[in-house]
Fold:
Amino acid sequence: MRKKRRWTNIILWIAVIVAVVWMLFPFYWAVITSIKKPADVFRLSFIPFVQFEPTSENWRSELQMRGQEIKRGLKNSLIIGVCSALVALFIGALAGYGLARYKYHRVKNRDITMWILSQRFLPPAAVVIPFFLIFKTLGLIDSVVGLVLINATFGIPFAVLVTRDAFRDLPEEIEESALVDGCSRFQVFSRIALPLAAPALVAAGIICFAFAWNEFLFAFIMSYSKAVPMTVLIAGTQDTQGIQFWYVATRMLMAVVPPTILALTVQRYIVQGLTFGAVKG
Structure:
């Protein structure tokens, strides 16, 4: 029995190591590619100072020659990601609470939820032309506001689904006690339901932010100068000689830093909220 358990632990450790290597290798590839000379990029080499000589020329070139462009791209991506996540979370929390606490008769709650969720499965390529024509009429082409609205549109279904399940799991007795004490339904929602569902709200907001941060199609079609985010800048490293992988790696690492810092910062609050739970709140 002890021998069987030992082999089980060994297999689990091997699986964990393989999974970690599998996830971290793209970042390692980006790091070593960003410090390679163009001639070394197309050679099979993974170990700095042994298989190739590292250089900081790629970073200097990007920061000196394209520093303002990259700074504007990071700023646009951050604004689009944060604002679209907040808009999706605001609308999604209201809709999710309504679906969790009210029953609709003409159209059932399940049908409303499925209709909202179906918008998430809608291929973006199917609506990019209508969005372009509408935003052209409204003057929102190459506008950060336009990209915020588009990303919020596709983030709302996920926020609705997550918040609905979170509000549904909350004990209704707490809200009923607040109603008896004289609170309005909106006060119950804002002062009781939202704080208790904070972990789900934070998780939904982070995922909506990640969707907006990684979005490329609408950003590529709707922006060309002022509102260009990092995803479009990363894809713009191709020239007449081909794709400049050393610049792709450099810009990719720059684009990874903000969401990583945000996720590590908010992770503590997620764990704290899940630890205290609804009864503590």
User: Anything to note?
Assistant: Confidence is low (pLDDT under 50) at residues 273-281. The domain at 60-274 is CATH 1.10.3720.10 (MetI-like fold).
